[in-house]
Design a protein that fits this description.
By secondary structure, the chain is an alpha/beta fold. It is built from twelve helices and 18 strands. Helix 6 crosses helix 7. The radius of gyration is 23 Å and the shape is globular. This is Amino acid deaminase. It comes from Kitasatospora terrestris. InterPro entries: D-amino_acid_metab_enzyme, D-ser_dehydrat-like_dom, D-ser_dehydrat-like_sf, PLP-binding_barrel. Pfam families: D-ser_dehydrat.
């Protein structure tokens, strides 16, 4: 499933100026040596992104149990973290493979030996297709799926694979989209035409259907859920119509916002059509957040016994207190996500939860505007921030400290997670 020795070897990487989370005192040490010294949160500078070990473990267990109870597979989206060590934890928890979004991410996964990959995208780059073909031919145990959403794409893939001398066919899912959505063919009739083109191409094999309902809605209101449900029913009907070239056809959907509705609509296909594999691709569940996913996750809306917990926090220091109700923090857009909601001030390190209703009203490249904290956030104070959207948090950090407990009085650094963006 994954090359554990390569993941373990990340602990032998030497720490230096490349890793902004690492203090200068640790430069020259390996990750293993640094952790052996027993570092604590107060040893680290600001701004800082950290992970919480307990929350990560809870989220892994919770989602694994939910999928097992629902009778569906989980191939989580690895682009959320691009962290092989976290991928390993997900695979160990029962995930079948890893989903990715582009060619560069595929190369990272193959470098770490991930042998079951789903590309939730169409791959048209000729050099990329030649590389994937070579990987398939050289490694019989390597399983690869990707999407296709037009006859033109089928023809271009077939041409590129023939030019590369492909041996094993590339398995593809016909991607169904929806009005106003992202990629994906619009309508079942056009999807059937694409499927016929795939079956006629000697270098491709029709292996299922897929899509992404999260592009069609952005909240959990009645209208949004109706839109998602209608799309998923269309995807289920398409799956029933097509004749596949594999004994275990895949039907795949499910981000981290509507996976309960996905299971309600697609789950019955596994019983109705023998061999069908219903594959979720939820990726944000592992880290979760204190913003968008906290508000929309099915497990926060009653679809499970245990809600997910945010496993990521930002830490930023007050640099300036120029006005009575304004503090400037030393972390901004280059450090924390802001596209799905601004950071949420939670507590002052060593002092406890913030009182009242302070907010981060804006972020610049390297600063955040904290308003309403008053004298609770004097110059030099370190503020813990709740963050929204893990997908745009991890890409800002090449090495992320993992704390034993972010709520502890003196959190210990128990791991460093390496990312590859």
């Amino acid at each position: 499933m994954l090359d554990r020795e390569k993941v373990a070897a990340l602990a032998d990487e030497r720490l230096d100026w490349r890793f902004k989370a690492v203090p200068a005192a640790a430069h020259g040490l390996t990750v293993r040596e640094y952790l052996a010294d027993g570092p604590v949160l107060d040893d680290l500078g600001t701004p800082l992104l950290t992970l919480d070990a307990g929350a990560l473990a809870h989220n892994l267990r919770t989602m694994a149990a939910w999928c097992a109870d629902a009778g569906v597979e989980l191939t989580p989206h690895g682009k959320t973290t691009m962290a092989p060590a976290l991928w390993q934890a997900q695979l160990d928890a029962g995930c079948r493979g890893i989903t990715l979004a582009n060619l560069a991410q595929l190369r990272v996964a193959r470098a770490f030996g991930v042998d079951r990959l789903l590309l939730a995208n169409t791959l048209l780059d000729p050099a990329g297709l030649a590389w994937v073909s070579a990987e398939l031919d050289a490694h019989p145990g390597f399983s690869f799926l990707c999407w296709v959403d037009s006859v033109d794409a089928v023809r271009q893939m077939d041409r590129a694979l023939r030019a590369a001398g492909a041996g094993r066919p590339v398995e593809v899912l016909v991607e169904l989209g929806g009005p106003g959505g992202r990629t994906g063919v619009r309508g079942a009739a056009a999807a059937v035409e694409i499927a016929e083109a795939v079956r006629a191409a000697g270098t491709l094999r029709l292996a299922g259907v897929g899509g992404y309902e999260g592009a069609l809605a952005h909240d959990a209101g009645e209208q949004a859920l109706a839109t998602v449900r209608g799309y998923l029913r269309e995807l289920a009907e398409l799956h029933r119509r097509l004749a596949y070239e594999t004994a275990e056809p895949v039907v795949s959907a499910g981000g981290s916002a509507y996976f309960d509705t996905v299971v309600e609509e697609l789950g019955p296909l596994a019983a109705a059509l023998p061999g069908t594999r219903v594959v979720l691709r939820s990726g944000a569940y592992l880290v979760h957040d204190d913003g968008f996913y906290r508000s929309i996750s099915p497990l926060a809306r009653g679809a499970g016994q245990a809600p997910l917990r945010s496993a990521m926090h930002g830490w930023a220091r007050v640099l300036s207190h120029p006005e009575p109700e304004l503090s400037l923090l030393d972390g901004g857009k280059r450090d924390f996500p802001y596209d799905e909601g601004l950071p949420e001030p939670q507590l002052v390190r060593g002092e406890g939860p913030l009182k009242g209703a302070p907010v981060v009203s804006a972020v610049n490249d390297q600063h955040a505007f904290l308003r309403g904290a008053g004298e609770q956030a004097p110059v030099g104070a370190v503020v813990r921030l709740g963050l929204s959207h893990p997908c745009t948090a991890f890409d800002k950090w090449t090495l992320i400290p993992v704390l034993d407990d972010a709520d502890a009085e003196r959190p210990r650094v128990v791991d460093l997670v390496r990312t590859f963006f």
